[in-house]
């Protein structure tokens, strides 16, 4: 069972400790605060699991010394990360410097904080536990803060450490293989192969050989022996994508492998043991296929031990700005092409139906990065099908017409002829801009507040009002 990571924020300044705790919680840790020796004793006495000790600026280092002394008395060696004004430990008493696994500046972004926490953890725990902690962070590849994607992350975390077969369902392009990768990387099989097989892309007469391998001369064209995907995935995870497209005769053979954990190559009578974990995926309704006689009920029961359904992108449109920001960073890092979308362009994307889901979004962003490198993509730069409700997005076309008519100044917006519900419309714009500012500043609230010309406390209150939380998945893919 994976250990729960806690962060103990040690700082005499309770307000500063709360600010640090918010960042740490954004990174997925359970954060607690100790601003006095009394609080510290209560914190340490109430937990047996190891803390990730995060020490904020403490000029006297008395609270820090008390923390480390209390840990030593309990026989614990807590991993420690120090936060200083400049990220340099020069002012730290020499006797304490060896205690820190990581040191960062108080103005560092959340990605730097995450790296420092990981470094501290790896400096103080066993290699196996360090590997476990680093693999856990891979679940953040599931980008978003919507309720649906939060549930997916929770399910992945629950099932990854088990040997249960998993059935991932969802429309095409929702990220089923990403979920399968996360399950594998969070499992104890993380250092063994992850082998994907698209059951719908392989001709039916070749699928058996692809899965189980064949011997030389087993059929025309078999000029040499070949290992199948089950052998290649030995000890790891076999991902059977589009399992609903598997022919019935192959379903029978797959069921036997799942039941007996053995198989034979095509053209061989030698039994081979199969030590693989099965993660299957489909965009089809398997219950409906069972009713139509196209899928075996007993195989469905074997595969559907732990179902995970990924929501369609149109049901989590609040995640679109984060997905855009994440993919734009990826494009700039890998290809040197900067991509920026205007507010109206982002709002327009949020009104699109997205039949191709996240895959369609990423394909669009790649196209836009090629067509408009380094420029801000406006509403009328989007392909026509991504521009519904034209009357709500007068960014370029309508503004230009209005300016010609002398009816609007450049910073005005046309009111739709049938009116608009102003309060939710403005609230949606406000939330969108705050989310963009937070993403652009790597979720450092103080930096985002500067971008919005707000006090930090004002932005924090607005984040609470609009229920904006740092997404665990807002890291690199």
Could you give a quick summary of the protein structure above?
The chain has 477 residues and is an alpha/beta fold. The protein contains 20 helices and 16 strands. Helices cover 44% and strands 13% of the residues.
* CATH topology-level fold name of the largest domain: Rossmann fold
CATH architecture of the largest domain: 3-Layer(aba) Sandwich
The CATH class label of the largest domain is: Alpha Beta
For the biggest sheet, the summary is:
5 strands, parallel
What percentage of residues falls in helices of 4 or more residues?
A: 40-55%
**What strand line-up does the widest sheet have?**
2-1-3-4-5
Mean model confidence by pLDDT: 78
- Main structural class: alpha/beta
In total, the number of strands is: 16
- Portion of residues in beta strands equals 5-15%
Spell out the CATH superfamily of the largest domain.
Answer: P-loop containing nucleotide triphosphate hydrolases
Gyration radius, in Å: 27 Å
Uncertain ranges: 125-139, 396-412, 473-477
- C-alpha termini separation: 26 Å
Quickly count the domains.
Answer: 3
Give the overall silhouette.
globular
Can you walk me through this structure?
With 477 residues, this protein is of the alpha/beta class. Helix content is 44%, strand content 13%. It has helices at residues 14-26, 37-45, 62-73, 94-97, 110-124, 127-136, 147-159, 176-186, 204-212, 229-232, 248-260, 286-291, 297-303, 320-335, 343-350, 357-371, 397-405, 422-440, 445-451, 456-465; strands at residues 6-10, 30-34, 51-55, 80-84, 102-105, 166-169, 194-198, 213-214, 226-227, 237-241, 262-264, 271-273, 277-282, 306-309, 340-341, 376-377. The protein has a five-stranded parallel beta sheet.
């Amino acid at each position: 069972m994976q250990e729960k990571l806690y962060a103990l924020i040690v700082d005499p300044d309770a307000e500063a400790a709360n600010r640090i705790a918010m960042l740490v919680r954004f990174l997925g840790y359970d954060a607690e605060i100790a601003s006095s020796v009394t609080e510290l004793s209560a914190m340490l006495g109430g937990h047996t699991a190891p803390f990730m000790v995060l020490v904020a600026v403490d000029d006297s280092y008395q609270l820090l010394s008390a923390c480390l002394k209390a840990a030593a008395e309990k026989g614990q060696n807590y991993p420690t990360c120090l936060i200083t004004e400049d990220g340099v430990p020069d002012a730290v008493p020499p006797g304490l410097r060896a205690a820190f696994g990581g040191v960062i500046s108080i103005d560092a972004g959340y990605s730097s904080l995450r790296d420092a926490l990981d470094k501290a953890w790896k400096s103080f725990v066993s290699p196996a536990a360090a590997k476990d902690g680093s693999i856990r962070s891979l679940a953040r590849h599931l980008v978003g803060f919507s309720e649906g994607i939060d549930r997916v992350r929770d399910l992945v975390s629950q099932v990854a450490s088990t040997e249960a077969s998993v059935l991932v369902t969802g429309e095409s392009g929702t990220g089923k293989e990403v979920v399968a990768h996360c399950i594998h990387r969070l499992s104890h099989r993380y250092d063994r192969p992850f082998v994907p097989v698209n059951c719908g892309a392989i001709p039916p007469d070749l699928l058996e050989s692809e899965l189980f391998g064949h011997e030389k001369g087993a059929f025309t064209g078999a000029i040499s022996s070949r290992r199948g995907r089950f052998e290649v995935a030995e000890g790891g995870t076999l991902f059977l994508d589009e399992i609903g497209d598997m022919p019935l005769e192959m379903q029978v053979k797959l069921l036997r492998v799942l039941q007996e954990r053995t198989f034979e190559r095509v053209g061989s009578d030698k039994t081979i043991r199969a030590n693989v974990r099965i993660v299957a995926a489909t965009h089809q309704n398997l219950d409906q296929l069972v009713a139509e006689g196209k899928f075996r009920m007993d195989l469905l029961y074997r595969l559907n031990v732990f179902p995970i359904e990924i929501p369609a992108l149109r049901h989590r449109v609040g995640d679109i700005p984060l997905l855009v920001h994440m993919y734009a960073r990826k494009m700039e890092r890998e290809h040197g092409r900067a991509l920026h979308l205007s507010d109206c362009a982002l709002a327009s994307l949020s009104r699109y139906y997205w039949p191709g889901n996240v895959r369609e979004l990423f394909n669009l962003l790649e196209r836009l990065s090629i067509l408009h490198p380094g420029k801000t993509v406006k509403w009328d730069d989007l392909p026509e099908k991504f521009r519904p409700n034209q009357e709500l997005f007068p960014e370029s076309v309508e503004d230009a017409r209005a300016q010609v008519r002398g009816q609007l100044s450049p910073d005005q917006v046309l009111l739709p002829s049938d009116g608009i519900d102003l309060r939710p419309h403005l609230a949606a714009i406000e939330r969108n801009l705050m989310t963009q500012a937070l993403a652009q500043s790597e979720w450092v609230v103080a930096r985002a507040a500067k971008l919005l010309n707000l006090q930090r406390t004002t932005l924090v209150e607005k984040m609470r009002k609009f229920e904006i939380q740092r997404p665990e998945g807002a890291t690199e893919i």
